[in-house]
């Protein structure tokens, strides 16, 4: 019998306890120490335990965190669930939001056919698992302190719902095909697919990698193919959590997990009282094209060009301490007030004086925080002086972020609203959602996660 009073956080703590039992995480000193404990049997065991803690019959709607926007500003991260990049997205954006909802990166075996089962065939999921394990460990303290909520989408466990959202997304993509010709979107897509290809074939014997590359890169010479295969093999060793697995002729699966399509994320925003944010151009472009209300164009300049200084080359613990100490809390308060205002206002009736009011308030909070930023930079320099990375420096980046809050008014919302009405989910809000885009101009943010600072 499943306890109906449980939350996702309760189940997440159970899963973290299981991870610690399987890999004795807290007994390790370095990422290298941990890597030696990772075997195919333990990968299989972890997936099995995950499936037991998060079974198909969970009421995932009831488990979702739900907050009043006037009291707590909640955000959903909509992007690639990659352990190597997640902490940058979380650490930076946590300054703007009270709580952040993030999707579990681990594949639920209950949703997987036996042919590709991570329990029965963990060799197919090696790289995905190692990446997910790193993801869980670097976010561990954030989750246990309640700043991060790890969730599973309830839509993934309802075939009818999943197909409805898939059809809505297909219709949207067919109507906006030109987006994928955009240079920034194409470059982003090509880089992601190359990374996925590289991950999927790295576990193959060298000869098999070369054969795959010959098909993918027919214009390459034999020597170029050999060098590329060697570089790929060496690249794996640069990962934060590198595990030396034996070569496997089956290769690995290519998995692209982001928590769901735009329509799914939009509905989860409404169910949780959250807004979404992303750093992906492809999501940003699609959402911009769907905007039918002038609100997003009016507020588009509100958070652009702000002189917000970000911290680079500091351990994630420092970022967490900043958040716990409520530094720069005025910025979050300003966002919270704006969110509360939007909940109670018809977006097409916004007046210029209201926009100026929020613009002035937000800029005042930013200016007020400048003195605190200087103290943060001073503190960070002390942390960097003790950092393992000798080249660590503080990046005083000017205007490293643009934040746009667009109101989305779309025909597909009608179908979604009707669906939730039939389910009797009263917490579902029918108002237009809005999303926050965080476009990091510093393309290679460099928070790092020293292992000893990630464990409890």
Describe this structure in words.
α6 links the parallel β2 and β3. This protein is mostly helical and 456 residues long. Residues 292-310, 387-408 and 441-445 have low confidence and may be disordered. The protein is 50% helix and 4% strand. It is globular, with a radius of gyration of 23 Å.
Summarize this, please?
With 456 residues, the chain is mainly α.
Itemize the secondary structure elements and their pairings:
Blueprint: H1 8-23, H2 31-35, H3 40-53, H4 60-63, E1 74-77, H5 83-93, E2 99-103, H6 126-144, E3 148-151, H7 159-175, H8 183-201, H9 206-216, H10 222-236, H11 262-272, E4 275-278, H12 281-290, H13 295-299, H14 316-324, H15 329-343, H16 352-368, H17 370-385, H18 412-423, E5 435-437
What features would you highlight for this structure?
5 strands; globular; single chain; 18 helices; 456 residues; 4% strand; mainly alpha; five-stranded parallel β-sheet
């Amino acid at each position: 019998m499943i306890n109906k009073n449980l939350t996702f956080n309760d189940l997440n703590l159970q899963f973290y306890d299981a991870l610690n039992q399987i890999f004795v995480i807290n007994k390790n000193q370095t990422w290298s120490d941990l890597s030696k404990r990772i075997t195919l049997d333990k990968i299989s065991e972890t997936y099995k335990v995950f499936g037991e803690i998060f079974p198909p019959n969970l009421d995932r709607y009831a488990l979702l965190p739900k907050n009043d926007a006037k009291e707590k500003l909640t955000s959903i991260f909509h992007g690639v669930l990659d352990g190597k990049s997640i902490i940058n997205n979380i650490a930076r954006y946590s300054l703007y939001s009270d709580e952040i909802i993030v999707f579990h990166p681990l594949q639920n075996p209950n949703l997987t056919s036996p042919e590709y089962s991570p329990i029965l065939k963990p060799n197919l999921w090696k790289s995905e698992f190692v990446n997910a394990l790193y993801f869980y460990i670097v976010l561990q303290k954030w989750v246990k302190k309640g700043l991060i909520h790890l969730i599973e989408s309830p839509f993934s466990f309802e075939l009818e719902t999943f197909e409805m959202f898939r059809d809505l997304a297909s219709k949207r993509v067919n109507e906006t095909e030109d987006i994928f010709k955009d240079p920034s979107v194409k470059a982003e897509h090509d880089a992601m697919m190359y990374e996925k290809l590289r991950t999927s074939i790295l576990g193959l014997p060298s000869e098999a990698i070369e054969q795959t590359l010959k098909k993918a890169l027919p214009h390459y010479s034999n020597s170029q193919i050999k060098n590329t295969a060697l570089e790929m093999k060496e690249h794996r060793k640069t990962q934060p959590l590198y595990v030396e697995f034996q070569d496997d002729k089956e290769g690995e699966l290519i998995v692209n997990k982001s928590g769901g399509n735009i329509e799914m994320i939009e509905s989860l925003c409404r169910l949780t009282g959250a807004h979404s944010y992303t750093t992906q151009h492809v999501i940003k472009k699609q959402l911009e094209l769907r905007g039918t209300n002038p609100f997003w164009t009016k507020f588009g300049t509100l958070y652009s060009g702000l002189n917000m200084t970000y911290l680079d080359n500091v351990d994630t613990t420092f970022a967490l301490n900043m958040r716990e100490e409520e530094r720069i809390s005025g910025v979050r308060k300003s966002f919270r007030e704006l969110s509360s205002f939007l909940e109670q206002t018809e977006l097409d009736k916004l007046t210029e004086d209201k926009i100026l009011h929020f613009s002035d308030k937000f800029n005042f909070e930013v200016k007020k925080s400048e003195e605190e930023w200087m103290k943060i930079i001073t503190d960070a320099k002390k942390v960097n002086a003790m950092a393992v990375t000798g080249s660590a420096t503080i990046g005083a980046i000017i205007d490293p972020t643009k934040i746009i809050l667009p109101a989305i008014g779309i025909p597909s919302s009608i179908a979604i609203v009707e669906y939730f009405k039939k389910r009797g989910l009263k917490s579902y809000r029918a108002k237009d959602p809005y999303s926050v885009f965080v476009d990091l101009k510093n393309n290679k943010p460099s928070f790092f996660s020293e292992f000893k600072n990630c464990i409890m």
